UniProtKB/TrEMBL annotation:
Name listed for the protein in its UniProt record: Phosphoglycerate mutase-like protein
Family annotation (PANTHER family): HISTIDINE ACID PHOSPHATASE, MULTIPLE INOSITOL POLYPHOSPHATE PHOSPHATASE-RELATED
Pfam families: His_Phos_2 (PF00328)
InterPro entries in the cross-refs: His_Pase_clade-2, His_PPase_superfam, SGNH_hydro_sf
Superkingdom to which the source organism belongs: Eukaryota
Length: 522
């Protein structure tokens, strides 16, 4: 375990168990035998083999009479010493945490970087990313048409008939007007385009050695994916020279199966999970409505669907304005976690591990990228003979799609699956399952993405030879590396490329009958 201690005055001692600052000890962060590695004017670094007894580390310690730091073997008697024990960054137990509802809105929040498991997005030591592919959801829109028609529009009509009389936290509803443009529901918002360019800048910075190779990206015929792609490409110095290839969902081929699988599958429907979601909404929405009843007009009561509409408006208004909506403050942390759970439940049934179709719809993209990376290794044509042909020198690939597709891929990989025996979370409709792994806030905000990196890493020769190089892959979800459950033996919990190819082959053997399960006919 390596700890860093900042000092302004220091004394280099022989291996000893304390850091001296001037004539007295004002701070201690390391205890037990220390191996000195470096001392600079900025600080001192040490390795701590183990943590010893911390008894009596209180108060202040001054150097005992006769103490000689250069005397070998001289130690410190803990029974006679006391110290001021302080953490490296003194904070309260929460480390400054504040709840943010925008981090708990699956599918409708402005983009944010996910934390994941804490692994760094930087390439591991000794590794270089030699190719990468990203599947990116479109930028923020004014509202999803189904959610608008089912929840938001009925609430807005009800609100217009009951203006005035709102008080307390709901007082702003007396004068509030909806920012949602009904005539352009699924158009990308101006702030959405700004965010798309920011994501582009992030990935250009992340892959400066690959960004110049981009000559083509892929979108579909929907305006929101094309507009997202164009805004994203503004981050590239040569954006005017980059082509946007558009796939038509009406054409069934390997390209649409990979990038638009839900639109290429006749058997796919968005209905699964709706019944369960409404059942759970009745539970928490009723409780929320009861809590807010004192602040509504006498002739106005929030129904559970009204609660759901207001929570959805929080996300969409924030995405439209590029700033957090005041409506977000209507609800408690627990109510936001219930909203998040309601959508996670819906997505688990519709595009996740509770839908038997999901892996069938996720593996085509993984298979196509595995073949693409293999072709790069072999110097072969990239996508030759397929609907998506890539320039021979391109090494960074982007596909712009819809919110359903990243969860299909995540399900096929198992990167958001439960660690339970069945590999699936349970979604009771009576209460929130807080320990679930399936949390789509971390995957499908607007501009949410799944990235697949191919890394070439130096491998040391255990016999003292020159060593060699080996290829690995790892997956990134909104900048957070996500180890594969079946393979994480490489640097940074990555997976050897050959092993990954085997996983994909096995997946295609099991889930490769796309047209059969989709009942696409002849």
């Amino acid at each position: 375990m390596g700890w860093t201690v900042n000092v302004t005055q220091f004394i280099k001692m022989k291996p000893f168990s304390i850091v001296l600052l001037g004539d007295s000890i004002t701070e201690i962060t390391c205890w037990r035998p220390i191996v000195w590695e470096q001392i600079t004017s900025a600080g001192l670094a040490c390795n701590v083999d183990s943590v010893g007894s911390m008894n009596n580390l209180q108060g202040a310690y001054t150097r005992p009479s006769g103490f000689d730091p250069d005397h070998e073997g001289q130690g410190l008697d803990m029974r006679d010493a006391s110290f001021a024990q302080q953490p490296i960054r003194p904070l309260d137990h929460s480390q400054g945490y504040q709840f943010d509802p925008l981090l708990h809105l699956p599918g409708i929040s402005p983009y944010f970087d996910a934390v994941g498991f804490g692994l760094s997005h930087a390439a591991p030591d000794g590794c270089t990313v030699t190719a990468a592919s990203y599947l990116i959801r479109h930028a923020a829109i004014y509202a999803n048409d189904a959610e608008y028609e089912d929840y938001i529009q009925p609430f807005l009509a009800k609100l217009d008939k009951h203006r005035g009389g709102f008080s307390g936290p709901l007082e702003i509803l007396n004068d509030w007007t909806s920012p949602i443009d009904e005539d352009h529901l699924e158009d990308v918002t101006p702030s959405g385009k700004v965010d798309a360019t920011r994501i582009g800048h992030h990935l250009v910075k992340r892959y400066p050695h690959l960004a110049g190779s981009v000559e083509r990206v892929v979108a579909d015929t929907k305006a929101r994916t094309y507009d997202t792609a164009r805004a994203f490409l503004k981050a590239f110095p040569h954006d005017g020279d980059i082509d946007v290839t558009r796939l038509d969902k009406k054409e069934l081929h390997d390209g649409t199966r990979a990038v638009l699988p839900h639109k290429a599958c006749s058997n796919f429907t968005k209905a699964p999970g709706t019944e369960e979601q409404l059942e759970f909404l009745q539970v928490y929405g009723t409780q929320t409505s009861r809590r807010l009843r004192p602040f509504t007009p006498d002739d106005f009561a929030l129904a559970p669907k009204d609660v759901f509409a207001l929570q959805s408006i929080c996300g969409y208004e924030s995405a439209i304005q590029g700033a957090r909506s005041a409506i977000c403050d209507f609800f408690s942390d627990a109510e936001w976690l219930s909203y998040e759970y309601a959508w996670d439940m819906k997505y688990a049934h519709m595009v996740g591990p509770l839908n038997p179709l999901s892996s069938y719809l996720g593996f085509p993209w993984l298979h196509s990228q595995s073949q693409l990376f293999e072709a790069i290794d072999e110097g072969a044509a990239l996508g030759n003979g397929t609907p998506i042909e890539w320039p021979s020198e391109q090494r960074l690939f982007f596909y712009f799609t819809h919110r359903e597709v990243p969860p299909f891929v995540a399900t096929a990989l198992g990167i958001f699956n439960s660690s339970s025996y069945q590999g699936r979370d349970e979604f009771p409709t009576s209460h929130v399952n807080h320990v679930r792994a399936w949390k789509m806030s971390d995957l499908i905000p607007f501009l949410g993405h799944v990235g697949m990196e191919k890394m070439t890493c130096d491998r040391a020769d255990m016999n003292g030879g020159e060593g060699g190089q080996e290829d690995f892959v790892r997956f990134i979800a909104n900048t957070a590396p996500r180890p594969l459950p079946l393979c994480q033996s490489g640097p940074g919990a990555s997976c050897p490329f050959e092993t990954f190819q085997g996983i994909v082959r096995a997946g295609m053997d099991k889930y490769g009958d796309f047209d059969g399960v989709c009942q696409n006919g002849g």
